[in-house]
Amino acid sequence: MKLLTLNCHSWQEDNQIEKISYIAKVIDEKDYDVIALQEVSQLICSDITYNNVKVDNFALLLQDELKKLGNEKYTFYWDVAHIGYDIYEEGLCLMTKLPVIEKESFNISKSNDIAFWKSRKIVKLNVLYNKKEVSLYSCHLGWWNDDDEPFKAQFNELFKKIKHDNIAFVMGDFNNNANVRNEGYDYICQKLFDTYKLSKNKDVGITVEGKIAGWDENKENLRLDLVLTNKVIKVESSNVIFNGINKDVVSDHYGVEVVVKI
């Protein structure tokens, strides 16, 4: 199974339409089974096209670009988590070419008020892969020491769902540097396995360099974006992508692509 996670930083990027087109070309080339996206936004004032998806939804435009390439394999599920930059409905998305059995979204923050920018929601799909039901999560969590919405409480809410799954992949921006001890990453690893650590072929794993939104004082290289699993499985490779080395940069975060055997 081929997995990709990417915090899109959508509608905050220069040349955004060109970058959407480029991401679509890479997805088409790589033929991922599952793509988890975070910071997937649409303007509050835009027209609805169906359900809660509006005409300028980042994931919808990405799907449209894939269709222009003749690739109509991918469906997606998106939901809004909170209002961003006063004008956007910012949410999360899972895109897949696999058969979808079930889909849901749920809050993991104390607040479920989308007007509060620290409100956090998860989107989940159950899909069928090699006759096995697999649970998929796209996640964007808060910070370890946040006074309003601490990471530990959010992760505990998330894990309440994961602990009932047979096979799960939990992907996204966890806002905790994997290179820092005794904080969020170590707490995660008490309950889930990092595919980066399980992988026999991997790179340095860095997904953020320097200062970005939410890490305004940062001067370090960070590994914030992770692909986690609830089982010890065979991981063929884990590589950072969209970092200027493995494909062009498209966001303030780099993506992570992982190949697993289940």
UniProtKB/TrEMBL annotation:
<feature type="domain" description="Endonuclease/exonuclease/phosphatase">
    <location>
        <begin position="20"/>
        <end position="253"/>
    </location>
</feature>
<dbReference type="InterPro" id="IPR036691">
    <property type="entry name" value="Endo/exonu/phosph_ase_sf"/>
</dbReference>
<dbReference type="InterPro" id="IPR051547">
    <property type="entry name" value="TDP2-like"/>
</dbReference>
<protein>
    <submittedName>
        <fullName>Maltose 6'-phosphate phosphatase</fullName>
        <ecNumber>3.1.3.90</ecNumber>
    </submittedName>
</protein>
<dbReference type="InterPro" id="IPR005135">
    <property type="entry name" value="Endo/exonuclease/phosphatase"/>
</dbReference>
<dbReference type="Pfam" id="PF03372">
    <property type="entry name" value="Exo_endo_phos"/>
</dbReference>
<keyword id="KW-0378">Hydrolase</keyword>
<dbReference type="GO" id="GO:0016787">
    <property type="term" value="F:hydrolase activity"/>
</dbReference>
